[in-house]
Amino acid sequence: MMNIVILAGSNRKEATSTRLSEYIQALMVQKGKQVQLIDLYQTPVPFYSPDEGYHNHPGLANLKKSMLEADAIVLATPEYHSSISGVLKNALDHLSKDHFGGKVVLSVSSSGGAIAVSSLTQLQTIVRNLHGINCPEWISIGGDQRKSFSTPVAETIQPDVEKRVKHVVDAFLQLAGQMSKTKAH
User: Fold this and answer.
1) PANTHER family in the record, alphabetically (predicted)?
2) Which phi and psi angles does 89 have, rounded to 5°?
3) H or E segment at 103?
C-alpha cells in the first residue's frame, strides 16, 4: 500500500492550508491510501542548527522517520510575504535527500491574496534541491476560495475548488503510483 505523508506547515491553529491538507488526506484515504498528516502547529520541531543533533526531540524523530518511510509527500504552506512559512522552511531544513530522493511531491498553498504562486515555486525549488520529483500539478487557494476551508470538516467547499483539488489529487496519486511501480522493478 502506498504510504503518503502530508506535512502541514503553518504555525496558526486554524490555518486554511492545514484544513486543505486535512481535506486532501480525506480524499486520499477514500481512495484506499495510507496517509499520515503531520501538523507542525500541533507537533513543532526545534529551530534548525547544523551544530545540534536534537537526538532526543520526539517531534523531530517522528518527522524524520515518517518522511523516510513515505512513498510520496504533500507539502502545504500558507503564503507569507510571497514565501513559504518559516515553520515549514525550518522543518525542511532538518531533512535531506534521504527523505525526498525519488519521491513524488505535491506542493499546496493558501494565500490571503488571489493565488500563492511564489510559495509554490519556492517549494518546487526546494524539492528539486532535495532530489524529489515535483508533481506538475499544484494547488493554490486564495481570497474567497479560502472560505471553503474555514471549518475543520470543509462543509462549505465551493464546487470549482472541489473539482480542482480532486483533479490535482488524482494526478498526484497517478504519478506517485507510476513511480512506485518503477522503483519496484
Assistant:
1) CHROMATE REDUCTASE, NAD(P)H-DEPENDENT FMN REDUCTASE LOT6
2) -60, -45
3) none
